[in-house]
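During the second year of the project, the team shifted from modelling isolated chains to modelling whole assemblies. The rationale, set out in the original proposal, was that interfaces cannot be judged from single-chain predictions alone. As a representative example for this report, we include one of the complexes processed in the last quarter. Its constituent sequences, exactly as entered into the pipeline, are reproduced here:
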Amino acid sequence: MGSEFVQLSLTPILIGVLASIACALPGNFLILRRQALIGDAISHVVLPGIVVAFLITGTVASVPMMLGAAGAAIIAVILIEAIKRLGRIEPGAAMGVVFTSMFAGGVLLLEQSDTSNVHLDVEHALMGNLESLIWFAAEDWSSLVDPAALAALPAELPRIAVVCALVAVLTYLFWRPLKISTFDEGFARSMGIPTTFISIGLVIAAAVAAVAAFDAVGSIIVIAMFICPPAAARLMTNQLEVQLVWSVVFAVLSAVLGYVFAGYGPLWFGGENAVSAAGMIATVSGIILGLACLFGPQRKRIGEAAGL
Amino acid sequence: MWTTFLDALLLQAGYNAALVAIGAALLGIAAGTSGTFLFLRKRALVSDAIAHATLPGIGLAFILMVALGGDGRDLGGLMLGSAVTAAAGLLLVEWTARETRLSEDAAIGAVLSVFFGFGIVLLTFIQTMSSGRQAGLDGLLLGSTAGMLFQDGIIIAIGGVLSVVAVYVLRRPMTLVAFDDEFAEASGVNVRHVDLAIMGLVLGVTVIGLKIVGLILIVAMLIIPAVAARFWTERTEHVVLGAGLIGGASGYIGAALSASAPALPTGPIIVLVCALLFGLSLLFAPIRGVLASVLRHRRFQVRVHRRQGLLALVHGEAIHDRMTLAVLRRDGLIRADGVATDDGRAQAAKALLDERRWEIVRQLHFADGIKASLDGLTPIEEVLTRDELAEIDKRLGPPVVVGE
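Output from the structure prediction step:
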C-alpha cells in the first residue's frame, strides 16, 4: 500500500479534501442566506472565462485561466443584477438566463477553436481530472520530507491549499459580522455592520473557492460541496459554530470515501477499472445528506415536532 | 454558408436537417410555453434539478438495455430511463423542501449535483463496460443532432406535438394558478394537481430535448423565452404566447444555423439565438425595455427642467443650468441671450398659475387617489375637470401681473 498509495492516491485525496472544505465553508452561509445556487451558477460561467483566457494566451496555464474564470464570474454577477433590476425579474430566473447563456457561449467557443492539442473540453470541465493529479516524484511516505520530491508536487495542491486556508482565515476574521448579518440583516445594519460589503464579499470568496476548486476537481464537486455538506450539517444542529464543524467533517468524509469508492469500489465487485472520482465524491455527499434528511436531530423546521 | 443557412431555413438542406429544424421548433414552442408557467410560479430553477437528474436514468437505461441484449443507444429507451430518474429527482426536491428545514434552492442544488455526479459515475462505468460499442452518451449532455436517426427525429417531433397540445389543453387552469394560486384554489382548481401537471410538462420537454439541446442547456430553453416574453407584455396569456414564439423561433433558426456550418453544435447555437432574442427584448421592448425606460426618464427630465426654467423666468431669476437653458431655447421660450420671448412669458405665467393651482389641489386632495399624479408636472388640465379647475381658481383670487 505504502509507496503506491503515496504516489497515486495521496495528492488526489488531499486536493479533493481541501477543495471540498474550501467550498463547504462559504456554503454554510450561502445556504442560510438562500443563495445556495450561486455555486451552480458560478461553476457554469467559469467555462467561457477559461476558454477566452485560453484563446488569448494560447496556453492552458493556470493563472490566466483563473483570471478569466474570475472575470467571467464578475460579468455574470453584474448581468444577473442588471436583469433583476431592469426587468424586475425574480433572482432565480435572472440567474438561469445568465448562466445558461454564458455556458452555451463557452461551449460554442470551445467547439470553434482548435483545442485538439490541449487538454480542454467540456467533459474535463465538468468532471475534473482528480485521478490524474499524481505525484510522480514520490517514492513512499519518506518523500513527504524530501524537498526534491515535494517540489514536484502537482501545482494544484499548493494552490487549493492556499485558497482553502484563505477561505478559512476569512471566515474566522469576519465571523461575527457574517453570522449576525446572515441571521438578521436589519439588526446587523443597525449595529453598523456593512451588510452589503459582507454579502458581496461572501459571493466573491465563494467564487474564488469555486474557481480554484474547479481548476482541480471540476464543477460537479464544486456544486455538490457548496450545498450537500452544509445542508447535511444544518440538519444536525441549531448552532452555527457546530454546523460549520459538521460541514467540514462531512466534506472530508465525502472526499475521502468518494475517492476510495471510485478507485477501489469496482475492484471489490470484480470490475477492473475505476469510475469517476468526482462523480463518486458528489454521490457520497448526497448519501450523507440523504441520511441527515432521514435521521438528523434537527431536520425539522422549528415549531414542528422533531420525532416521527 | 449563407446559402446553406437559407436552404436549412427553407428545409432544403436535406432530410435530416429538415427533421431537426422542425423538431427543434416544436421543442422550442413546448419549452417556451411550459417554462412560462414555471417562471410565473417563481420556480424556474427547479427545471435545472430535473434536467440534471436525467443523467443517471440515461446511464441505467443504457446498462439495462445492453444487459438485456439490446442496443444501448435506443433513444426511446434512454428517454424512458431519463424520465424515471428525473421524476425521482423532482420528487426528492419537493420532499426535501417540505419535510426538512432546508429551503427549496438548497434541495435543487443538492439533487442536481448528486444525481449528475452519480450519472457521471455510471457514464465512466459504461465506458469501461462495452469496449466494442462506444456509448456516445456524451452527446446527450450538450445535444448532438449529427447523424440523428430518422426514428429519433420522429420521436422528438411526436413528443413536441404532444407537449404543445398538452399546454393548449391545460392552458386555463395553469394560467389561473400561475397568476394567482390563492384565487385559483378558491375557485375550485386543485393547485397541487396543476403544479404537478406543470412539472410533468417540464419533465417531458426536458426528456424530448435531450437529443437536440442536451440536458445541461435545456434549462435555458425553459427559462429564457419566458423571461424574454415578460418584457413585452403584462398579460399572462400573452407571455405564454410570446414565450412559445421566442422558443420556437430560436429552435428553428438555431437548428438551421447549426446545419449550415461545421463545428456549430445545435444545443449551444439554439440557446445563443434564444439569448440574443432575450437581449433584444431587454433593450428594445416597449414600456419595460431599457431603451424605453431611458427615453421615459429623459422625457421626465426635460419636463422638470422646462417647468423649473419657466418658474425661474416668472420670478426673474437667472438660469444657470445648461440643460434648462437648452430645453427653453429649443422650445423657443427664451432667445439666445437668455431673455424670455413672448411665448416664454406667456407660458411662464401659465406655469406659475398651475403651480399655485397645484398647491391648492395638494391641500384639498392630500390623501386622495390622484396623489400619484400630483407630481406637478402633468398638465393640470389632464388631471382635473374644468369645473374643478374653476373651483380652484376661485380660491386663487384675482390675477396679478407677473414677469415684468
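The radius of gyration of chain B is 30 Å. Chain B touches chain A through 60 residues (CB under 8 Å).
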